[in-house]
Amino acid sequence: MRAILFGILLGVVYCDLKAQSTPEEKLMQTLYAITHLYVDSVPKEAYINHTIAEMVGKLDPFSEYLPPVELKSNDQALGGMAAFAGVGMEGTWKDGHFYVSFVEKTGSAWLQGIRAGDEVLSVDGKTVEQLQDGQIFRLLNGEEGSVVTLQIKRGKKTPFERKIVRTYILSSGVRSAYMIDSETGYLSISVFSKNVAEDFRKQLQNLLRRGMKKLILDIRKNEGGLFDEAIAIADELLDGNKSVVYADGIHMERMTFQASVKGLFEQGRLVVLVNGQTKSAAEILAGALQDWDRGVLVGGSTFGKGMIQDTFPFEDGSALRLTVARYFTPSGRSIQKPYGGGQLSAQSGKTYESLRTHRVLRSEGGIVPDVFVSADTVHFTRWYNMLVYSGVQKQVTRDYVVGCRLELLKKYKTFEAFQKNFDGGALLQEICRVAEEANIVFSEEEYERSENFLRVQVKALVARELFNENEYYYRILNSADPFVQKACEIMNTSEEYRRILKENN
Predict the structure, then answer these.
(1) 406, exposed or middle or buried, with CB in 10 Å at 0-12, 13-18, 19+?
(2) 46 — pLDDT class (breaks 50, 70, 90)
(3) Helix 392-411 and helix 382-390, axial crossing angle in degrees, nearest 10
(4) Is-contact 353 330, C-beta < 8 A?
(5) CA 295 distance to own-chain centroid
(6) Which burial class, exposed, middle or buried, applies to 423 when counting CB atoms under 10 A from its CB (0-12, 13-18, 19+)?
(7) 3-state DSSP call for residue 404?
(8) Which residues lie below 8 Å from residue 193, measured CB to CB, with a gap of 6+?
């Protein structure tokens, strides 16, 4: 009797499975059979979650299944924000004392008169002698709106006390903005974070007030961020109602995003720096500017991330992040690089025309620059990389500035004097000594390969700490940057700029 019943059951299941006419029905029936008829107990939730993850992972590089914890962290990352609640200052230990090394000018510590070079004697009544290395930083940070009390000593003056409210310090996506010469501005965007377009406008206005007629826009190492912010920045550089990008997918109607407002810098020469770490929203910006012949792209081919993901949440807190469309530049180039077996491979190598001068543009996935510049990687030796990982060069320069701040400020009254005359040779020797103590094996050959770059970097770090200006760090680094040098060369050579963009005058 049992054998008969078993045979009937198998027959019913077999017939049901065979009767399914669509792949969707086949999938659902398979899951039912595994979770209800399999010989051993199957943990349904874990098994189905794993199956979903495997299925989605085979679609493209960006579609994924997100468990509840990963969904939360991903949503925070997609916000494009970097923020923390604290007082907005950095510090370093030297000879058992704790000194302020840098103060954010948007933070509450700056508003309370705390400056680089000040010595912190106590935090909330605890002397620094009672605090270990990490403890002091944990005390400086805390709940937004809470108060921390610092006792400060400045030189030989009587110590004073400051009550500082912890606030969220928002990190602007504008990394640096300054004038290279009387007519050329430099502006770097590290990420399209919240309000970065507004910061961009403010910095652009400041550069224009200082006489800027030509702009180098640096979006190297910009990994994207908020789409709307990138569109808003493109709008400041493109005239008229020009399209910036369009999105298209088999299950959605084409959506075109256009410039719509009178921008601050619609005329004037523009060079855009890009490389393999220029991604997503940054590629949208670069592609639009190139398609409309608005500027010259210099550097290396961009990363090639041009897919749009939408998030579909489940009741258990997990979600499906699914690619629903692709981004295309105004000329029709797909930004996404081929990822194997997809429709995108058909575009690779195809040529397109720019929309104003009809010059030839290539589509290889990502945005191909007008002028290639090879990155100098000779200095990335094992010895140098170990310095970076250990933070030796940063610590040595901070200790140096803390110990010699007054002497250095007396010697170099302006940044220009510092940039022209400072020599960090003695610091390089100290870095080598400290590195050896940290068991970083010295190599003469590797040191020679890294020396020039390290010398520039050390000088840049000293400038930042000494004058409490992030801008000075980038000004010194850029002075030896082949990408920036090439941009200046093109910008200042009328014939080359016009030749690249096929301009007649």
Answers:
(1) exposed
(2) confident
(3) 80
(4) no
(5) 22
(6) exposed
(7) helix
(8) 79, 80, 81, 82, 171, 172, 173, 225, 226, 229
**Which segments within 87-205 are labelled E, that is strand?**
89-94, 97-103, 119-123, 126-127, 147-153, 160-165, 167-170, 174-179, 184-189
The identity of residue 445, as a single letter, is E
Q: What is the pTM of this model?
A: 0.83
Decide if 282 contacts 305 (C-beta within 8 A).
no
Helix runs in 64-181, H state only = 68-78, 108-111, 133-140
Reported as a single tens digit per residue, the pLDDT across 266-324 is: 999 999 999 999 999 999 999 999 999 999 999 999 999 998 888 888 888 888 888 88
Query: Is the CB of residue 476 less than 8 Å from the CB of residue 455?
Result: no
What is the token pair recorded at 11?
Answer: 């027959």
As a whole number of angstroms, the distance between CA 7 and CA 4 comes to 5
Token pair for 78: 């997609």
d(CA 427, CA 31): 66
| Cα 18 to Cα 21: distance, rounded to the nearest angstrom | 8
CATH number of 83-170: 2.30.42.10
Shortest CA distance to 308 belongs to which of 274, 257, 345? 257
432 CB-near residues (< 8 Å, 6+ apart): 442, 447
Distance between CA atoms of residues 120 and 110, nearest Å:
14
Q: What are phi and psi of 497, to 5 degrees?
A: -60, -45
Structure confidence by residue, pLDDT tens digits, 54-87? 888 888 888 888 887 655 555 444 444 445 688 8
Q: Can you tell me the mean pLDDT for 137-154? A: 90
Query: Rounded to the nearest 5°, which phi and psi values hold at 94?
Result: -150, 120
Burial grade of 390 (CB within 10 A; 0-12, 13-18, 19 or more): middle
Pairing of strands 296-299, 371-372: parallel
Region 174-308+324-372: CATH code = 3.90.226.10
The ranges assigned to domains in the chain are 23-58, 83-170, 174-308+324-372, 382-468
Rg of the chain taking only CA atoms, in angstroms: 29
